[in-house]
Amino acid sequence: MAAARGASYSPRVSTIHRICPLCEATCGISVTVRDGVVSELRGDDADAFSRGYICPKAYGLKGLEEDPDRLRRPLLKRDGQFVEVGWDEAFAAAIDGLTRVRAGHGPNAIGTYLGNPTAHSLHAMVYGPVLLRALGTRQRYSASSADQLPKMVSAGLMFGAGLTIPVPDLDRTDYLLMLGGNPRVSNGSLMTAPDVGARLDAIIARGGQVVVVDPRRSETAARASEHVAIRPGMDAAFLLAILHVWSAEGALRLGRADGHVVGVERIPALVAPFSPEAVAAATGIDPVTTRRIAHAFAAAERAACYGRIGTTCQRFGTLASWAVDLVNILSGNLDREGGAMFTTPAANRGGARPATALGGRGVRPGKPTRVRGLPTWFGEAPVATLADEIMTPGPDQVRAMVTLAGNPVSSAPGVAQLERAFASLDFMVAVDFYLNETTRHAHVILPPPAPLQRDTYDLALYQLAIRNVARYSRAALPRPAEQPDEWEILATLAKGMVGAAAIPLAAADDVVLGELLKEEVGEDGKRWPGLTMDEARAALGPLPGPRRVLDLLLRTGPWGDGFGRAPGGLSLAALEAAPHGVDLGPLRPQLPHVLRTPDAKIDLAPALIVADLPRLEHELGQPPPELVLIGRRQLRSNNSWMHNLPALMRGPARCTLLMHPSDAASRGLAAGARVRVTSRAGSFEATVELSDEVMPGVISLPHGWGHAGEGVRQSVASAAPGANVNLASDPGFLDPPSGNAAFNGVPVSVAAV
Predict the structure, then answer these.
(1) Of 23, 185, 231, 155, nearest in space to 744 by CA
(2) N or C: which end of the chain has fewer CB within 10 A?
(3) Is the CB of residue 682 less than 8 Å from the CB of residue 727?
(4) 350 confidence band (pLDDT: 50, 70, 90)
(5) Cα 541 to Cα 185, 651, 744, distances in angstroms
(6) How far apart are alpha carbons 207 and 468 in whole angstroms?
(7) Residues 630 and 740 in one domain
(8) Domain annotation covers residue 290
(9) What backbone torsions phi and psi does residue 501 show, to the nearest 5 degrees?
(10) Which domain, by its residues, includes 207?
């Protein structure tokens, strides 16, 4: 309707302060909404953690909200074609299909896969486990075994829990030794640290050193105090050589860990075979450099060692992850200011556990996988064997899949085999808002709201923050009237799978809350004297959903108000009153009550890890492959799910194959040449980019590309598909203790097309 003559139009404008959910940095953003449309997105200068910093990915949120390819209604496959249907019909079809598979073949005939974005969603973190329990399957997979699983395994064996991972105290350290990480691009990984580049610069500015050990002179290495090139997969050997130097010189020390460790007497013998001279040929690092770094680290007043993707996605990922923590512990830098410290998250499952209840059950591998006998950890099987479990007949063969924000057909090793496997499924349900390489095989797709339409809190990432912080993010945009929230999608599927489809969602959610109350409050009131489950339930209110779960975790956590028993403590109301977040201060010592091993001690020599040392020692005497393949991070990309946003796809082609000029010359290749990269598992074609930033004998292609499959509905990504490195990634090339895929160091050959 036209405005009356003389009347002025006043647009409805609001600004919401929240966090960006697109990577681990959790940067604060200010989202201005004009008449229901995002008109501006910028860094939140008042954010308690990021102080106005954002990277280019944040601007992709506006594009994601507006993306015409993003699914807004459920899709049901009929006669091989997707058609839009209503939510009731979609839920009924999903539950019926999964129920039929389970009835005919048992619960383990249903496989599940959780993708990377689930870690950024409060809804998925709380209600994803509810759905998994309702499905009742042991065939569980996630992006963890294509990423950080070796670190979780080593942390679990050493400290007692998979996410009890020390992070470098970046803001107070004097010496940072970094292996296989590129946080200036990734914004941190298993280390939540917004504006990490400025924090690294600050180390150098205050007279400290940042030493990067990496096969490539990455963006982080280029601005470090020193870059040391290392052959891919040899990080554990290099770190054990540092420990060898300290051991031989009698320089091992425990610092705050003294009295809280077992196995320290075994370390000299375990590192004895790994002298700097013994590992030099395998690592490519001369002994003088190794000894110099060992002495500099030991001499620093405050030092920290940090390893990431390059140390986990390789054949010796668990050993490398273990060695990182050994360097921190045996230099006296664990749990001390400026060293490697444990975060004290404000909201955490089990946060109500008394600080005096030391010890726990620890971590052990589960039942090996059905087909290849790979280890299972934390209730999950390695994704490297998912295709085997689908394609191999027999009891517990996977015949149906449920995926949640995951794209394994693009991002897991052996994608050609996975493509065939997913095409053979009897039934598949995807909770996803894109029709991608994986979800095109689904029979039902249930799209969740866009990130800006969801409230959230980073339950997982704030367990790994370099500073204790808490921030609740309100939705910046309303959900369409018919769009269920993400938790409602997951809870509806869950209650349908337990035969409770007719029960109101609120009643089912009360059951979920009751289970959490038993865990976090219990009947005895030991954590908060006098607090009962009934009192807590009444205070949390009747509205279902993740808000009251978060309120419970906050109020019973280490910074909580204890439902009024600790005035000034945290609650959801307190966070909502602080739209820029709450700074809870720098990391503080956590030993011994952070430990969850059975004896409440740090195990420096876990049997499963020690048993893998002979494999590494044997490798020292083997000639290195002529050419190996590694991945690389990019600032405007995150795995396989951000290539359909125009703002992040501008500029020259980024999916290029980096190759050292000497390697190219020996093969008669020039810049811009099209080549075929071939491994034992498969091959892909790519365009050569000559660069001396990769060491000779190493080529590099970014992961997450290759959006060229038939039926993919991502117009921007498909227009510049790039090459999928996982066509050459080998499902049989992995880290045996964890079963994690080894994407880095894959032996390959390169020839002109």
Answers:
(1) 231
(2) N
(3) yes
(4) low
(5) 42, 50, 49
(6) 25
(7) yes
(8) yes
(9) -60, -30
(10) 157-342+605-616
